[in-house]
UniProtKB/TrEMBL annotation:
Superkingdom field: Archaea
Matching Gene3D superfamilies: NAD(P)-binding Rossmann-like Domain
GO MF entries: protein-containing complex binding
Domain NAD-dependent epimerase/dehydratase: 3-140
Pfam families: Epimerase
Name recorded for this polypeptide: NAD-dependent epimerase/dehydratase domain-containing protein
């Protein structure tokens, strides 16, 4: 199966990328950096929304998983315009969208409002799924290490705390 994995160089994307490769899928990752990832085809993009739609149209993937999310910067571009372009191009493929717990079109918080607007675009696709995780923590993530240091989760057992 051919999968376009946007956000495939990020924290969650790294785990999903490894799983897809292990299962024998062909993985294509659009990236703004000139990097090579073993077992993956990378495609250089500037980050403009229409590039993602064109990539879907050109590659005819079986699925697109969109993990793009920003905590600062252009929320509308990342959370609404890019999903809109991907959804527009997903005529015969499945679209999986990573949103956020708390996504709400009426939210005063731009992050949650734009995540909800992105979901609205994804729902236009015939075959889609939307995941709404809450806080995601894990090894090699700064927030994870800060949480351990601050003892936010005092009973959390990790390889380094045993």
């Amino acid at each position: 199966m051919r999968v376009i994995l946007t956000g495939g160089t990020g924290f969650i994307g790294g785990f999903l990328r490894a799983e897809l490769i292990q299962r024998g899928h062909e993985v294509v990752i659009p990236t703004r950096k000139d990097i090579a990832i073993p077992g993956v085809k990378t495609v250089r993009v500037r980050g403009e929304p229409e590039e993602y739609g064109r990539l879907v149209e050109e590659l005819h993937p079986d699925a697109v998983t969109n993990l793009i999310g920003v905590l600062r910067g252009d929320y509308h571009k990342a959370h609404v315009a890019i999903p809109r372009e991907i959804a527009r191009a997903c005529n015969s493929c499945r679209l999986i969208q990573m949103s956020a717990l708390g996504a709400d079109e009426d939210s005063e918080i731009p992050y949650f409002r734009t995540k909800a607007l992105g979901e609205k675009e994804v729902r236009k696709v015939k075959s889609y799924a939307i995941a709404r995780p809450s806080l995601v923590l894990g090894p090699n993530q700064r927030l994870f290490h800060d949480a351990l240091k601050w003892r936010i989760f005092p009973n959390l057992k990790t390889p380094s705390s045993r």
